[in-house]
Amino acid sequence: MYKFFRKISVIRFNKRSLGQNFLIDKNIVRKIVNLINMKNRNIIEIGPGDGALTQEILKQNPKSVVTIEKDEFFFKKMQNKYSTNKIIKNLNADILKYDLEKLDLQRPIIIGNLPYNISSQILVKMIKFKKWPPDFFDLIFMFQKELGEKIIGLYQTPNYGRISILANSRLKVIKKFFVSPNCFRPKPKITSMVIHFKPKSTLLSIKDILNLEKVTKIFFSNKRKMINKNIKKLFTQKQIKSLNQLDLKSRPTELNPEMYYKITKLYERIK
């Protein structure tokens, strides 16, 4: 009987269909949780898995903890493990479909060792909160190093691109540290990166972040080609001429964030 359950456990632990790689290094777990004071704070944890981060979060004496786990196996595991803990609420839900704003928590900290295959989508979901400044206070997420470098990529650096434009438009992005593949089980082939995000209180003059998302999507649909063709998907020739200092022979990565904001504002005026 013991061998049977042990075998099931190994199968579950090595399941990669949801992009799951579980933290097993307790020093890294503590390092992540200690990035911010969680005492008497509301915490939302995305993808708790077997609860390594959750266990450390609880040591900080938070006001409440909400975990959101898509995998039913790990959801039930969390339910059983913390069935008598009154400050934890476990949700069996898909974070990409779940409306975080309806949780109605005061200034929560959102934390997660995100599934690699949907981590960029989760970040964009946070950026697209309807209310801004948002209800959340801080975001602490772990990404693949390659994606993390793109998120923090500044203008005129090799990693600058669409995701960095979107992230930096609404968030202060703070790179914290790398995490070795040896800190996970199953062991991934890549290094990970922990990033701390803080919502910016100063709003851009853009009316709707969805418009910046659309503009950057069109421009970066072929980032190696000049923008002169893709820009015509948004504007007439006359409208394009009103964008002073825009070189149509530029490539998407050669335009700074302020130019993308300017293009977005023009798009909003003519919609």
Description of the molecule:
With 271 residues, the protein is of the alpha/beta class. It folds into two domains: 2-199, 3-Layer(aba) Sandwich (Rossmann fold), CATH 3.40.50; 209-270, Orthogonal Bundle (Helicase, Ruva Protein, domain 3). The protein is built from ten helices and nine strands. The strands form two sheets. A seven-stranded mixed beta sheet has the order 4-3-2-5-6-9-7, sandwiched between helices. A two-stranded antiparallel sheet has the order 1-8. α2 (26-33) crosses α3. The longest helix is centred in the last third of the chain and has 14 residues, at 257-270. The chain is elongated. The termini are far apart.
Shape: elongated
Low-pLDDT runs: 1-14
* CATH fold topology of the largest domain: Rossmann fold
Secondary-structure element order, N to C: HEHEHEHEEHEHHEEEHHH
CATH hierarchy: architecture of the largest domain: 3-Layer(aba) Sandwich
Largest sheet: 7 strands, mixed
User: Rounded to an integer, what's the Rg over CA atoms?
Assistant: 21 Å
The strands making up the biggest β-sheet line up spatially as: 4-3-2-5-6-9-7
Helix content: 25-40%
How would you summarize the topology of this molecule?
Layout: H1 2-13, E1 22-23, H2 26-33, E2 42-46, H3 52-58, E3 64-69, H4 72-81, E4 88-92, E5 109-113, H5 119-127, E6 138-144, H6 145-151, H7 162-170, E7 171-179, E8 184-185, E9 192-199, H8 209-219, H9 237-241, H10 257-270
Parallel strand pairs: 2-3, 2-5, 3-4, 5-6
Antiparallel strand pairs: 1-8, 6-9, 7-9
Helix pairs in contact: 2-3, 5-7, 8-10
